[in-house]
């Protein structure tokens, strides 16, 4: 007989499949086996689809009881029950379900190399921002090369140079001959990206610049804290976040804080961008109250 979870043919004498599915109960009952089954696949896409399939099987067996806390002991099944079965946090379970749904409705997500990138892309789509997704740094580099003249944040000041050694991109200033080493970051750790661009800048200064100044630019989807901290001591390296909508790439400069106060302001601005209209209204009242307290 065929297991409805892993799709493998199994002997009729087997009570529980190696994936954790119980043939007699028609549901997943072995939490250890099902967790190993989900972890066994190499890509995030396969993992979230397996999570979604487990959830679907459990709902088919027990019916739905919703996710409200007051229904914990009610009959039926919920996503939170699936989360407990799989040993993951409920918020992670919700994210996996959104990603599984996204894979069915947005083929571009197949090109995301990590869950984090997919989660960001889904969030943008839910806000009405139809953003294309680069599956790799090589795709991003190829797009920038082919559309350099259309990316005004670069082409207005810099001319792209021929590929040199292992650099992602190299550009030269249109008037004074400065060199710009461009490093692309999608999923790599900040320390590796900063270390790499510093090495490339050194190579360009010694072997390619002809004595002209060398600057660096890191282009990423989202500037994480590690990257911002690293660049606080690197005045020659700037940072920009990219967005791609309707085939047009935009680069937004990221301000690098140099003091604790500037860091707090940065985090505050980023938090505000994620607020809804109702949350902003409530926050405004809190700030006005705090301002009055400080002025007294």
Molecular structure report:
This protein is of the alpha/beta class and 296 residues long. Among the domains are: 21-105, no CATH class; 137-256, Trna Endonuclease, Chain: A, domain 1 (3-Layer(aba) Sandwich), CATH 3.40.1350.10. 46% of the residues lie in helices and 14% in strands. The protein has 11 helices and 8 strands. It has helices at 31-39, 44-62, 79-86, 90-105, 115-126, 137-146, 152-155, 190-207, 225-231, 260-273, 277-295; strands at residues 21-22, 27-28, 158-160, 169-173, 179-185, 214-220, 237-245, 248-253. A 6-stranded mixed β-sheet has the order 3-4-5-6-7-8. Strands 1-2 form a two-stranded antiparallel sheet. A hairpin with a 4-residue loop joins strand 1 (21-22) and strand 2 (27-28). Helix 4 packs across helix 5. The termini are far apart. The mean pLDDT is 84.
